[in-house]
Specification:
binds zinc ion; mainly alpha; Helix Hairpins; 3-stranded mixed sheet; disordered C terminus
Length: 260
């Protein structure tokens, strides 16, 4: 590829990358409302899941307490049976006292179970109250996604077309040229600038006529003396049927044609 062709490919690369940036902006802007609604629904879902986990934990704690209670009641029944067979007075009263302790333990367990059941009921109430909120929020989010789905998939395929076009340009250009372009683009948004009427169209400084002539002839790959962007003469863009247009079509391309 001669110098002129390389400069043309660079100009196309820059134009395509500007278009990609625009599409990426749209890809963020278009689903913003749906994403916000989705985040809201996800938050409620997180809260709901947390309540349900707490409810499960509380339920297994209640079952554990019920198990303990059954066991303690069983023990008490055994002791009661033993008590009926004890004739010795001291042994009898010692067992009675132990059974008193046992009964207090059972009452304490019964109270705990009542508390646990109240807690479970309150949690179930909270869950029942929150679930319709979640369903409503989810429905709203799904509706909003539905409104933008088509547009999003169009944008994604538009982006894919341009990404392929970009990669094709990069493959054609020498790696050193691409690297230089990238270094400038990193600092200055765009790596190339159009020279029109002896003026850099990015920084609007005048370019010395001799330099403009060389740029016009496509003899050099030089940075603008002021902004360092690689200079490309406007005639390169206007004179040729830009191959980028083949894959990009006219829609949207016009808006992005001017380098930023
Ligand atoms: Zn400049």
């Amino acid at each position: 590829m001669n110098m002129r062709e390389q400069l043309q490919k660079l100009a196309e690369l820059s134009q395509i990358e500007a278009q990609i940036k625009l599409i990426e902006g749209e890809l963020e802007r278009v689903p913003a409302d749906a994403q916000k609604a989705q985040d809201g629904a996800d938050n409620i879902k997180g809260e709901l899941d947390g309540l349900e986990r707490t409810h499960l934990d509380a339920e297994s704690e209640r079952r554990r307490l019920e198990g303990d209670l059954q066991m303690e009641r069983g023990n008490l029944r055994k002791w009661q049976a033993r008590l009926d067979n004890i004739r010795d007075e001291r042994e009898h009263s010692a067992l009675l006292s132990e059974m008193g302790t046992q009964k207090r333990g059972i009452r304490a367990l019964e109270n705990k179970i009542l508390d646990a059941m109240e807690n479970l009921e309150a949690l179930a109430g909270d869950i029942a109250k929150l679930r319709p909120d979640y369903e409503k929020a989810l429905e709203e989010a799904q509706g909003l996604w539905g409104e933008v789905d088509g547009e999003l998939s169009d944008l994604r395929s538009e982006k894919n077309v341009r990404v392929e076009a970009r990669d094709a340009r990069i493959e054609l250009l020498a790696p050193a040229v691409v690297a230089r372009y990238r270094r400038i683009a990193e600092r200055r948004q765009t790596g190339v600038t159009i020279i029109k009427d002896e003026t850099c169209q990015s920084c609007f400084r005048s370019i010395p006529p001799q330099l403009v002539l060389q740029v016009y002839r496509g003899e050099i790959m030089e940075g603008c003396p002021s902004c360092q962007r690689i200079m490309i003469h406007e005639s390169f863009i206007e004179a040729d049927e830009t191959p980028a247009q083949e894959s990009i079509e006219d829609e949207g391309a016009n808006a992005a044609a001017a380098p930023a």
